Amino acid sequence: MNHYVSQLIDDIRMASWNLRPPHDLWVTSEANPDNELELEDMAYVEQYIYGEEEPIGEITGIDQELLPFPEELTTQEQALLATELEKLLEVFHFVLDFPETFPMHLRYPFIRDFWEESHVALSFGENHIEFCDCTENYCAFPGYCTSCAEIAAQLKFDEASGNETDNIDINFDELLPTPEEVARFFNEMNVSEDHDTETMSNENKNTSKPDNPSPAERLNADHFNMIEKDLLPVPGRCIVCKNYNQDDEDTLVFCNIARLQQRNSQQFACPLFEKDE
Prior knowledge:
Largest sheet: 2 strands, antiparallel
Helix content: 40-55%
Number of domains: 3
Distance between the termini: 53 Å
Strand order of the largest sheet: 1-3
Mean pLDDT: 76
Strand content: 5-15%
Order of helices and strands: HHHEHHEHEEHHHHHH
Structural class: mainly alpha
């Protein structure tokens, strides 16, 4: 191994010490990166809403000009550099998606080309970088990747069996909690049946409802306000949404329903989301 490559590897390893402080977003939101749901949401917000793209060289501290062209290196040197550069990128939360059996020396040209790109530097989580565009005739990893063939086989099977995947029907009613789920939620939270007695009494007079409505029957703007905000998990996207902490009752009902219905989901989706400027 020539002296330059040896010195470059030392520089790459030293660059891994240059960690950045977390984005202010993580501090103001008090999100917990150890919480899988909060991590995914806040990483999404940081990457696509508040983050600014920077050249990979600025993020890592290793300029592309320092990386030799592949033809200037031996197979062993390419493998060594590819290994060290992948480790460095992982420190800065970039994960390069290569086929598991793809040799390290063949990865080096892809990694060097990646250094020409600009991305958002995440504080936590993983930013997966794809090199494959799923075009079988122009496979980036011929002989090492079977994804295109597997996708084509699945599409062929779906077509033959009548399971078309192009038209997906979404039942938006499923986003709303059932009466049973609402009742169970109130029971779990130990919400008192006599909460806001005066308000309940006035409404009973106007609506001719029973004096002691069930929790499910309380699903309206006023009574959904009885849910303390801290009792429902608040995804990171809610925190940076302009609708967060608004006084509009209709919006509050929708937000609480969305959070309640998806409280155990790994991903949170909300059609009302709009970035707070």
